């Protein structure tokens, strides 16, 4: 991204649809190919939010693993999975901001924000139950989060281990 274009997204109402898990693989080559000034604004989640841009996150499966937890980890740490390399950490976002982008932000992007994206009366009640509080665990433990149940339209659709 050219940093001058970020405010244009907000002004024009453009939604930034991104897949945070790409950072985990792209960080190994992006700076070498883009140069540090351009790389600095790749995956610029915080800069977009600060400018008032709507973010919608996804997994980009099957290009990346289907789990959203890799992307959540990438968004909040901007570190590789080993925790040994950082990638422009000034653009990391909070867990709440990342979860919002995966849920309400994605619902907004598909014009479904009136019935998807949050647990509220009248909404579809699609959600997962996980084995830990992803707001409180050490960020590294986000990567090994397991889904215990998947609910669709308020009904259990699948149970994990």
Percentage beta strand:
5-15%
**DSSP helix count?**
8
Structural class: alpha+beta
Helix content: 25-40%
* Widest sheet, order of strands: 3-4-5
Instruction: Give the overall shape.
Output: globular
Largest sheet: 3 strands, antiparallel
User: What does the average pLDDT come to?
Assistant: 95
Terminus-to-terminus distance: 41 Å
State the CATH class of the domain at 3-114: Alpha Beta
The stretches of 5 or more residues where confidence is low (pLDDT under 50) are none
Radius of gyration: 16 Å
Architecture blueprint of SSEs:
Blueprint: H1 6-12, E1 16-18, H2 21-26, H3 30-34, H4 36-39, H5 45-50, E2 55-57, H6 68-77, H7 95-109, E3 127-130, H8 139-142, E4 147-152, E5 155-159
Parallel strand pairs: 1-2
Antiparallel strand pairs: 3-4, 4-5
Helix pairs in contact: 6-7
Question: How is this structure best described in words?
Answer:
The chain has a domain at 3-114: Metal-dependent hydrolases (TIM Barrel, Alpha-Beta Barrel), CATH 3.20.20.140. 35% of the residues lie in helices and 13% in strands. The protein contains 8 helices and 5 strands; from the N terminus they run αβααααβααβαββ. The protein has helices at 6-12, 21-26, 30-34, 36-39, 45-50, 68-77, 95-109, 139-142, and strands at 16-18, 55-57, 127-130, 147-152, 155-159. The chain has a 3-stranded antiparallel beta sheet with strand order 3-4-5, with no helix packed on it. A two-stranded parallel ribbon has the order 1-2. Helix 6 packs across helix 7. The radius of gyration is 16 Å and the shape is globular. The model has no long low-confidence stretch (mean pLDDT 95).
């Amino acid at each position: 991204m050219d940093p001058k274009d970020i405010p244009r997204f907000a002004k024009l109402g453009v939604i930034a649809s991104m897949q945070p898990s790409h950072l985990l693989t792209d960080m190994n080559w992006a700076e070498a190919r883009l140069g540090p000034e351009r790389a600095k604004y790749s995956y610029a989640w915080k800069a977009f939010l600060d400018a008032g841009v709507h973010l919608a996150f996804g997994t980009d499966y099957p290009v990346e693993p289907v789990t959203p937890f890799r992307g959540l980890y990438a968004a909040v740490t901007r570190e590789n999975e080993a925790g040994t390399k950082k990638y422009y950490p000034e653009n990391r976002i909070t867990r709440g901001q990342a979860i919002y982008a995966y849920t309400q932000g994605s619902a907004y992007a598909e014009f479904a924000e009136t019935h998807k994206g949050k647990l509220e009366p009248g909404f579809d009640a699609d959600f997962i139950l996980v084995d830990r509080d992803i707001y409180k665990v050490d960020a590294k433990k986000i990567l090994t989060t397991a889904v215990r149940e998947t609910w669709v339209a308020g009904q259990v659709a699948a149970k994990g281990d």
